[in-house]
Amino acid sequence: MHDHARTTLRTHFDIVESPDCDIRAHLSEAVRASIRGVACRTGIDRRFIDALPRLEIIASYGVGYDDVDVAYARSRNIVVTNTPDVLNEEVADLTLGLLISVVREIPQAASFVRAGRWSATDYPLSPLTLRNRKVGIYGMGRIGRCIARRVEAFGLPVAYHSRRPADGVAYDHYPSLLDLARAVDVLISIVPGDLSTAKSVNAAVLAALGPQGVFINVGRGTVVDEAALVEALRTGTIAAAGLDVLADEPNVPDEMLALDNLTILPHIGSASVSTRTAMADLVAQNLVAWFENGAALTAVP
Fold it and tell me: Which is the catalytic residue, given 249, 255, 276, 292?
């Protein structure tokens, strides 16, 4: 857990820490029976919940909560919270930075200079550009809207796919992800990872994006059929991709590392000191609010 959350929580509660989620192995039955709240940045399953008979609230560090068994927690009348909004702008900034890096080959150009090659020749012209592109956003939630505003500032049209049209959004809505991919040549994924989105960015979607297509994922790695993505990049089905998330982090498949047209970041969408501190503060304040007022600040919908 982030040190700021830990420090704040210690001013309000007695803290018990476990090195991993196997709390039965680390905490006695008497200690587990005394625990009423959990602050976590790891998976919480039924076994974990059942080990804490008096548990009232799970405060998860992060906007995504797909690794917490929310349905089972609800069945036990346990509140689950996350940390939305405080990271929206940071993730949106990173998304546009990753997109520009992919299209204009910024990592490759920086490596070109560090390797001492600039003294011998100019860096090749980048084959891709953002000009005259249309951007599709897969997921028009809080972060999706922040990304869309930035895309508009670059003078590019925006369209999106979500389960239903988003309220107050004027961008073109496509009823299916495949329809969206056919209509755009940049696809940005910012949807949560769950059964409904698992491997939804598949071979057909990538083929629809086209040979000049660029795919960016800052949501969840499980949304992508990674084998299909590797094949699409290897064969030129799409031009390039940038990932801040993988299905099995931090393990990166060797076939991905071998691709020059794939940029991979180590899940740093919200990873600035200020934003991570704000997230940690929200974890702590959710617990404080629950035990002081009986209402969490950001319970998951």
Answer: 249
